[in-house]
Amino acid sequence: MIRLTMRERISYAILVLSFLFLGNNTLFAQQTTTTPKSDFWSKVRFGGGLGLNFGRNNTNITVAPSALYQPNQYVAFGPGLNYTYQKFGDFKTTLVGASAIVISNPLDFLQLSGEFEQLRVFQSVSGQPDIPNSWNTALFLGAGYRLNVGGNSLGAIGVRYNVLFDNDDSVYADAWQPFVRVYF
Protein backbone atom coordinates (compact mmCIF):
# COMPACT_ATOMS: atom_id res chain seq x y z
CA MET A 1 0.00 0.00 0.00
CA ILE A 2 1.27 3.46 -0.89
CA ARG A 3 1.34 5.95 1.89
CA LEU A 4 0.63 9.55 0.88
CA THR A 5 1.50 12.58 2.85
CA MET A 6 -1.15 15.08 3.78
CA ARG A 7 0.07 17.47 1.10
CA GLU A 8 -0.10 14.72 -1.56
CA ARG A 9 -3.62 13.73 -0.43
CA ILE A 10 -4.85 17.31 -0.79
CA SER A 11 -3.20 17.65 -4.20
CA TYR A 12 -4.70 14.34 -5.32
CA ALA A 13 -8.18 15.33 -4.06
CA ILE A 14 -7.98 18.67 -5.90
CA LEU A 15 -6.89 16.89 -9.07
CA VAL A 16 -9.74 14.34 -8.90
CA LEU A 17 -12.35 17.01 -8.13
CA SER A 18 -11.05 19.16 -10.99
CA PHE A 19 -11.46 16.30 -13.46
CA LEU A 20 -14.95 15.58 -12.12
CA PHE A 21 -16.09 19.19 -12.38
CA LEU A 22 -14.46 19.93 -15.72
CA GLY A 23 -15.49 16.63 -17.21
CA ASN A 24 -19.13 17.04 -16.28
CA ASN A 25 -20.46 19.82 -18.52
CA THR A 26 -23.97 19.61 -17.05
CA LEU A 27 -22.63 20.83 -13.73
CA PHE A 28 -21.57 24.13 -15.29
CA ALA A 29 -24.16 24.34 -18.04
CA GLN A 30 -26.47 27.28 -17.76
CA GLN A 31 -30.07 26.41 -17.77
CA THR A 32 -31.83 28.72 -20.20
CA THR A 33 -35.49 29.28 -19.74
CA THR A 34 -37.45 31.03 -22.40
CA THR A 35 -39.98 33.45 -21.09
CA PRO A 36 -43.02 33.68 -23.28
CA LYS A 37 -43.11 36.90 -25.28
CA SER A 38 -45.85 39.28 -24.31
CA ASP A 39 -48.37 39.81 -27.07
CA PHE A 40 -49.51 43.10 -25.51
CA TRP A 41 -48.17 45.31 -28.32
CA SER A 42 -49.72 43.11 -31.00
CA LYS A 43 -53.11 43.99 -29.48
CA VAL A 44 -52.51 47.76 -29.40
CA ARG A 45 -53.90 49.86 -32.23
CA PHE A 46 -53.19 53.52 -32.90
CA GLY A 47 -55.43 56.06 -34.56
CA GLY A 48 -57.57 59.01 -33.70
CA GLY A 49 -59.00 62.02 -35.45
CA LEU A 50 -57.90 65.00 -37.45
CA GLY A 51 -60.17 67.90 -38.31
CA LEU A 52 -59.61 70.95 -40.48
CA ASN A 53 -62.28 73.52 -41.22
CA PHE A 54 -61.62 76.81 -42.93
CA GLY A 55 -64.22 79.32 -43.96
CA ARG A 56 -64.93 82.99 -44.26
CA ASN A 57 -63.34 84.54 -41.18
CA ASN A 58 -63.22 81.23 -39.26
CA THR A 59 -60.75 78.42 -38.61
CA ASN A 60 -61.11 75.14 -36.76
CA ILE A 61 -58.20 72.70 -36.33
CA THR A 62 -58.41 69.52 -34.27
CA VAL A 63 -55.75 66.88 -33.59
CA ALA A 64 -56.88 63.93 -31.46
CA PRO A 65 -54.51 60.92 -31.35
CA SER A 66 -55.52 57.83 -29.40
CA ALA A 67 -54.56 54.24 -28.73
CA LEU A 68 -56.69 51.16 -28.15
CA TYR A 69 -55.88 47.91 -26.43
CA GLN A 70 -58.00 45.16 -28.00
CA PRO A 71 -57.78 41.95 -25.93
CA ASN A 72 -60.33 40.20 -28.17
CA GLN A 73 -62.55 40.88 -31.18
CA TYR A 74 -65.45 42.17 -29.08
CA VAL A 75 -63.98 44.92 -26.90
CA ALA A 76 -61.28 47.61 -27.00
CA PHE A 77 -60.36 50.43 -24.65
CA GLY A 78 -57.75 53.12 -24.31
CA PRO A 79 -56.70 56.73 -23.79
CA GLY A 80 -56.73 59.70 -26.11
CA LEU A 81 -55.53 63.29 -26.28
CA ASN A 82 -57.28 66.29 -27.78
CA TYR A 83 -56.13 69.67 -29.06
CA THR A 84 -58.53 72.03 -30.79
CA TYR A 85 -58.03 75.60 -31.98
CA GLN A 86 -61.07 77.61 -33.07
CA LYS A 87 -61.23 81.18 -34.35
CA PHE A 88 -64.44 82.90 -35.37
CA GLY A 89 -63.86 86.56 -36.12
CA ASP A 90 -62.40 88.11 -32.97
CA PHE A 91 -63.34 85.12 -30.79
CA LYS A 92 -60.67 82.45 -30.12
CA THR A 93 -60.97 79.16 -28.24
CA THR A 94 -58.29 76.61 -27.47
CA LEU A 95 -59.25 73.22 -26.04
CA VAL A 96 -56.67 70.87 -24.53
CA GLY A 97 -57.56 67.63 -22.83
CA ALA A 98 -57.71 63.87 -22.56
CA SER A 99 -60.26 61.13 -22.98
CA ALA A 100 -60.86 57.48 -22.24
CA ILE A 101 -62.87 55.28 -24.60
CA VAL A 102 -64.43 51.83 -24.45
CA ILE A 103 -65.58 50.22 -27.69
CA SER A 104 -67.74 47.14 -28.03
CA ASN A 105 -68.30 45.19 -31.25
CA PRO A 106 -71.30 42.95 -30.48
CA LEU A 107 -72.02 42.25 -34.15
CA ASP A 108 -69.85 42.18 -37.26
CA PHE A 109 -71.25 45.47 -38.54
CA LEU A 110 -72.04 47.31 -35.27
CA GLN A 111 -69.77 49.30 -32.97
CA LEU A 112 -71.00 50.72 -29.65
CA SER A 113 -68.87 53.17 -27.66
CA GLY A 114 -68.63 55.13 -24.47
CA GLU A 115 -66.15 57.99 -24.21
CA PHE A 116 -65.35 60.22 -21.26
CA GLU A 117 -63.66 63.51 -22.19
CA GLN A 118 -62.21 66.27 -20.03
CA LEU A 119 -61.11 69.51 -21.75
CA ARG A 120 -59.49 72.67 -20.45
CA VAL A 121 -61.05 75.67 -22.21
CA PHE A 122 -59.11 78.86 -22.96
CA GLN A 123 -61.17 81.65 -24.59
CA SER A 124 -60.48 85.22 -25.60
CA VAL A 125 -62.11 88.03 -27.55
CA SER A 126 -59.93 90.72 -29.10
CA GLY A 127 -60.19 94.02 -27.22
CA GLN A 128 -62.24 92.50 -24.36
CA PRO A 129 -61.29 91.54 -20.79
CA ASP A 130 -59.94 88.01 -20.41
CA ILE A 131 -62.53 85.27 -20.17
CA PRO A 132 -61.82 82.94 -17.22
CA ASN A 133 -60.50 79.51 -18.15
CA SER A 134 -62.89 76.65 -17.50
CA TRP A 135 -63.32 72.89 -17.75
CA ASN A 136 -65.69 71.07 -20.08
CA THR A 137 -66.70 67.49 -19.29
CA ALA A 138 -68.45 65.24 -21.78
CA LEU A 139 -69.69 61.65 -21.69
CA PHE A 140 -70.46 60.39 -25.18
CA LEU A 141 -72.47 57.25 -25.95
CA GLY A 142 -72.25 56.26 -29.58
CA ALA A 143 -73.20 53.73 -32.22
CA GLY A 144 -71.66 53.23 -35.63
CA TYR A 145 -71.21 51.04 -38.64
CA ARG A 146 -67.92 49.10 -38.52
CA LEU A 147 -65.59 49.50 -41.47
CA ASN A 148 -64.21 46.00 -42.18
CA VAL A 149 -61.47 45.45 -44.74
CA GLY A 150 -60.08 41.96 -45.29
CA GLY A 151 -61.59 40.69 -42.04
CA ASN A 152 -59.98 43.49 -40.00
CA SER A 153 -61.96 46.32 -38.48
CA LEU A 154 -60.31 49.62 -39.35
CA GLY A 155 -62.80 51.77 -37.47
CA ALA A 156 -66.35 53.00 -37.69
CA ILE A 157 -68.59 55.79 -38.89
CA GLY A 158 -71.54 56.80 -36.76
CA VAL A 159 -73.07 59.22 -34.30
CA ARG A 160 -72.49 59.89 -30.61
CA TYR A 161 -74.55 61.70 -27.98
CA ASN A 162 -73.17 63.76 -25.07
CA VAL A 163 -75.34 62.80 -22.09
CA LEU A 164 -73.77 65.62 -20.00
CA PHE A 165 -74.53 68.29 -22.61
CA ASP A 166 -75.55 71.68 -21.18
CA ASN A 167 -76.44 74.22 -23.86
CA ASP A 168 -75.35 77.15 -21.66
CA ASP A 169 -72.04 75.71 -20.50
CA SER A 170 -70.67 73.50 -23.31
CA VAL A 171 -67.97 74.08 -25.88
CA TYR A 172 -70.03 71.97 -28.29
CA ALA A 173 -72.91 73.44 -30.28
CA ASP A 174 -75.06 70.30 -30.01
CA ALA A 175 -75.26 67.11 -27.95
CA TRP A 176 -75.31 64.98 -31.14
CA GLN A 177 -72.07 64.61 -33.07
CA PRO A 178 -71.08 62.49 -36.07
CA PHE A 179 -67.80 60.59 -35.83
CA VAL A 180 -65.33 58.71 -37.99
CA ARG A 181 -62.84 56.48 -36.16
CA VAL A 182 -59.82 54.93 -37.82
CA TYR A 183 -57.32 52.62 -36.10
CA PHE A 184 -54.34 50.72 -37.48
Fill in the keyword field for this structure.
mainly beta, Porin, 8 strands, 184 residues
Tell me the layout of helices and strands:
Elements: H1 6-23, H2 25-28, E1 44-55, E2 58-69, E3 75-88, E4 91-107, E5 110-125, E6 134-149, E7 152-162, E8 176-183
Antiparallel strand pairs: 1-2, 1-8, 2-3, 3-4, 4-5, 5-6, 6-7, 7-8
What spatial form do the alpha-carbon principal axes imply? elongated
Strand arrangement in the largest pleated sheet:
1-2-3-4-5-6-7-8
Q: Helix share of residues?
A: 10-25%
Range of strand content: over 45%
Count of the separate structural domains: 1
Largest sheet: 8 strands, antiparallel, barrel
Query: If classified by CATH, what would the architecture be?
Result: Beta Barrel
* Average of the residue pLDDT scores: 84
CATH class type = Mainly Beta
Structural class: mainly beta
Distance between the termini: 83 Å
Strand count: 8
CATH topology name = Porin
Oligomer: single chain
Low-confidence runs of at least 5 consecutive residues: none
Indicate the radius of gyration in whole angstroms. Answer: 32 Å
Order of helices and strands: HHEEEEEEEE
Note the total helix count.
2
